[in-house]
Amino acid sequence: MRLRLSLVQDAPVQGDIQATLTQMGAYAARAGRKGIGADLLVFPELYVTGYFPNLWERRPTPADELDWIDRVQKMARDEGLWIVFGHPSYRAQTLEYGRTRYGRDIPGDGIHLPLYNSVSLVSPAGLRETYAKVHLYGSERDCFTPGDLFPVWDTPWGKVGVQICFDVEFPEGPRLAALGGAKLLLFPASNPAPYGEWHGIYTAARGLENRVFAATVNRLGAELTYSFCGGSCVIHPKGAWLVPPSERPGLYSCDIDFSELEQIDPSIDYLRLRRPDLYQGLDRAM
């Protein structure tokens, strides 16, 4: 099974969600059936609103979130794409709520509800899933509630695990996704300098240690004192870059052949060779 994967490395339009959604639609048109024929298009973390909540015009409402999802679903339908995109969410998949609550009437402005730093998977038929970032970085806890699940999502090309930015720096979540059958790990990110090279290293490590394809899609631009540094990349489970890290804006694409996972040397099949009976101490507090 082959997948044409496209990553958007750019900056949202600061303070203008509608202009950002228009920009996203232009990228979808470049990637879609009249463009390069991509199957799956991925945008960075919190791309709809921008990264820092204190730069938002206001706290988004549950109705705002439904509008964003509807807009992206129209892009997916018009261009024949599946789309992954980052945004604040009240409807993420958690232990309490199970699957996403798309279409559920959540009245009011959401001020008393947990807000998640999230990524959604949208198909031409509508929203499929929404993931809540588990490992919150820095001041993110001032606005967002951490997630508590590492889900694996079904797509026409196989199972995919989606986690967000800082999550890539912790090996446990990607390992759980791989054990859940994920063949591709996606990490939408808002990673700033001076940590740009780190995420390339972590992406390669997560792919190699789990014998899966792995991709990070990081944004560009500046907010407050942060300078987001790109470095979006895709790694093959044998260690070759399918998309090497770059700092230039644009649309980056590659073809992934999942049948190549069957050609991995069994002597380095890390999932099969694990010794979980010896790992019981991993849950102990430091």
The main sheet comes to:
6 strands, mixed
What string, H for helix and E for strand, traces the elements in order?
EHEHEEEEEHEHEEEEEEH
> According to CATH, what is the class?
Alpha Beta
Task: Provide the spatial order of strands within the biggest beta sheet.
Answer: 5-4-3-2-1-14
Distance separating the two termini? 43 Å
CATH architecture: 4-Layer Sandwich
The CATH topology name reads Nitrilase/N-carbamoyl-D-aminoacid amidohydrolase
Please state the CA-atom Rg, rounded to the nearest Å.
18 Å
Q: Extract low-pLDDT stretches.
A: none
CATH superfamily: Carbon-nitrogen hydrolase
**Fraction of residues in β-strands:** 25-35%
Rounded average pLDDT: 95
Number of domains: 1
How would the global form be characterised? globular
